[in-house]
Amino acid sequence: MTAEQWARASGEARITQVAGDHVTHAHTHNHRHAHTHTHLHGPGNGPAPKALLGLPEAPAALFGREDAVEELVAVLGEAGPPVVVVAGLAGVGKSALAVSTAHRAVDLGLFGDRVFFLPLRGYAADGGTSGPQAVREMLRLLGVRDADVPTSPEARLALYRAELAAFARDGRRVLVVADDAGAVAQVRDLVPAGDAHRLLVTSRHRLVAPGFTARVLTLEELADRPAAGLLADTLLRARPDDPRPAREADALAAVARHCGRLPLALTVAGALLAGDPGLSVAELARQLADVRSRLEALTFDEDGVPVGVRAAFDLSYARLPAEQARLFRLLTVNPGPDCRTEHAGLLSGAGPGVRPALAALARASLLTEQPVGSGRWRMHDLLRLYATERGEECARQDGREEATDAFLARLTSDTDAARTVLGVDGPAATGPGLPAVADALHWLDTERPLLTAAVGHAVATGRPAAAGELARLLAPYLKLYGHSQEAVVVTGHVLTAARRSGSAEEVGGALYNLGYTLVDVDRTEEAIDRLTEARALFREISHTVGEGKALNMLGAAYRRMRRFEEAREAHEAALRIFRAEGIRHAEGTALSSLAHCLEELGRVGEAADAYRASVALMRAVGDRHREASGLDHLGGALARAGRREESRAVREQALAILREVGNRSREAWVLAGIAGTLRDEGRGQEARSRYEEALAVFEGLGDRYGQGAVLGGLGSLHVAQGRPEEAREVLERACHLLGGGSSPGDEAVAVGALAGVLGLLGRSAEAAETAGRATELFAQAGDAEQAAACREAAAHWRAQTARPGRPRDGGRRGD
């Protein structure tokens, strides 16, 4: 084709001819004075179409991303950076966010009709659109005819930049949305020069490279409520009258959680429900609860092509270099919620040099360091299932079994060192190679979820000995530092392993340990069943010490059920065994347990003597934790005997020990006990100070039960000092915190106290109703005497309310 070219410019116009091709552009600060003509011989001489506002339709609803849209719109404003990358895991909703943001920007008039959408298919098997191809496509979208597109990549790039420069000189801003980029090379040439135009990129990678500067917005999974909303919306758009979302709201939330709150998984789940109107949401939730088949269940067959999470993850996984792929697979050997850099180095064999590989996986949105700089790496739940599948397929070549053994051995060794330093089951030790007390406690507190999960992982992978050893080392810390729920999980795992292949002694020991922890969480009937079974097994094999331990814990369980005589007999039988065997530590434990029982039987003097004997034994064997516990219990017994000064003195000793060993939870309970004694002595200001100190500790620990108990004590102080309105406020908080917990007796005490305060305030109707609730709670706790007292109080306040001439609003009169 031949072309005759001519151009005329006036004013400040500038004429540019690009690389010898037959395209000329004239640019001027005042476009009215510029004239550009290109005369072509042959077909295609007319104006080329332009793809202005070539955006896909915006999502009908965008759940949980409203703030992200506003943030992006602000970044795309005139003061923002030229390039913004929305990065995140496959299926997290990057494209939906980008398209919604572009539509919002148009609505606000930020770019007029100059918005272009360019799909790059960066994760396709063929690599998708290359950088030069992307520039060619943008020229087409800008209205340049195919016949006018230069043949060389350099010329096309120059023309693209010239087109954008022309828009900029005319004061017309352009937004290019480059969707699904797989590498910087795909979008580098699309970066607009200057600060007028914007390039918005979506990618699974946090696109970072020398010479490529972009603001990166990382998109995470949805929060709980928006996730359930997206799931329901997906179903209802297909079936507007479907009753299941409203009828099965709890099951819908469960499905959303099983989907990891990942938008792709949620839309697949919604499509599955829409495609099967007879499938209940609860049944889908049940199917997804099985982690072994969850990815398979989250697949929708679309005309013979599987659409789902696994297929999306396949594309990201296929892009990984071999060593990164191996690390990705081996990270799932760690069963905890996240993985330390140090542990990743151990699993992969890379040691301290593993961080660059972890950072590369994070750039690919396959990991997240949370918080940034912490050295703790988290993988999305569904992605973890996918990585586990790939890891099991490649187990031999990865050395997965060896990595598992090494990892469990490391956790066991570190737990043993921490246990030794804290002295949770014997004298504390210090020395070379051992951490400081604060460091040991911090490590245990931080890694507790991992350690708990590791016991179950050891059982599941056929390593019962490793599970038992780690559980044995972990149990005293869980017990003494108030982590009873985790202790139940750990001991349950060990019992499962013991029943499969353990000896009678091992099964008995596992039953005892589980019963012990069940007592702590007030699952008393279950505890009695397990402990009774353990005792029978120990007797059968003549394991006397095991029988003594089971008897002692049975006594504790009976005591929880207020069966005090049975409890006393069990504790005394255990004490005889331990004394006969010469086991001083166990003897001290049994003495403390017997003392509790004697207190309940009203034999306070004998109880105090037993506590003193227990404290002396624990001091002799170097168990500082149980020495402090015994001192605290002795202080309580002395307070109840009216010997308040002695009580405070021994509790101060306990407080000093607990602060030394860093047991914050137990420290707060001792502070509350001291506060109660000060309150009873009439030393209100000192009592209030100690209550507030204890409350601050419990708040810091997130211990709702502890907070509720302390507020109950503080309420009684306000009553004693004539501040019933303040008492009502703190007691209402106490009831809220204690409500629905595992200790109805403690909640009953707070509710009963609140009833009394409402009565003092003349709010008789409310007092009667509250006393009735306390009656029910005391009955649930098995305390018939207190239930009867509250029932009587409720009747009294109802009579007060019904008295002639008394207002019916509970005693509150108008002004």
Radius of gyration: 36 Å
Overall average pLDDT: 89
Q: What proportion strand?
A: 5-15%
Describe the global form: elongated
Structural class: alpha/beta
Characterise the protein shown here.
The protein is of the alpha/beta class and 815 residues long. Helices cover 62% and strands 8% of the residues. The chain has a 5-stranded parallel sheet, with helices on both faces. It has a 3-stranded antiparallel sheet with strand order 12-14-13. Helix 30 runs antiparallel to helix 31 (684-701). The radius of gyration is 36 Å and the shape is elongated.
Helix/strand layout:
Blueprint: E1 3-9, E2 14-17, E3 24-27, E4 34-40, H1 66-75, E5 83-88, H2 94-107, E6 115-119, H3 131-141, H4 153-169, E7 175-181, H5 184-187, E8 198-203, E9 215-219, H6 224-238, H7 244-247, H8 249-258, H9 263-275, H10 281-289, H11 294-297, E10 299-302, E11 305-308, H12 309-318, H13 322-330, E12 339-340, H14 341-348, H15 355-363, E13 368-369, E14 376-378, H16 381-393, H17 395-398, H18 400-422, H19 437-460, H20 464-480, H21 484-501, H22 504-520, H23 524-540, H24 544-560, H25 564-581, H26 584-600, H27 604-621, H28 624-640, H29 644-661, H30 664-680, H31 684-701, H32 704-720, H33 724-738, H34 744-760, H35 764-780, H36 784-802
Parallel strand pairs: 5-8, 5-9, 6-7, 7-8
Antiparallel strand pairs: 1-4, 2-3, 10-11, 12-14, 13-14
Helix pairs in contact: 1-2, 3-4, 6-8, 6-9, 8-10, 13-15, 13-16, 14-18, 18-19, 18-20, 19-20, 19-21, 20-21, 21-22, 22-23, 22-24, 23-24, 24-25, 24-26, 25-26, 26-27, 26-28, 27-28, 28-29, 28-30, 29-30, 30-31, 30-32, 31-32, 32-33, 32-34, 33-34, 34-35, 35-36
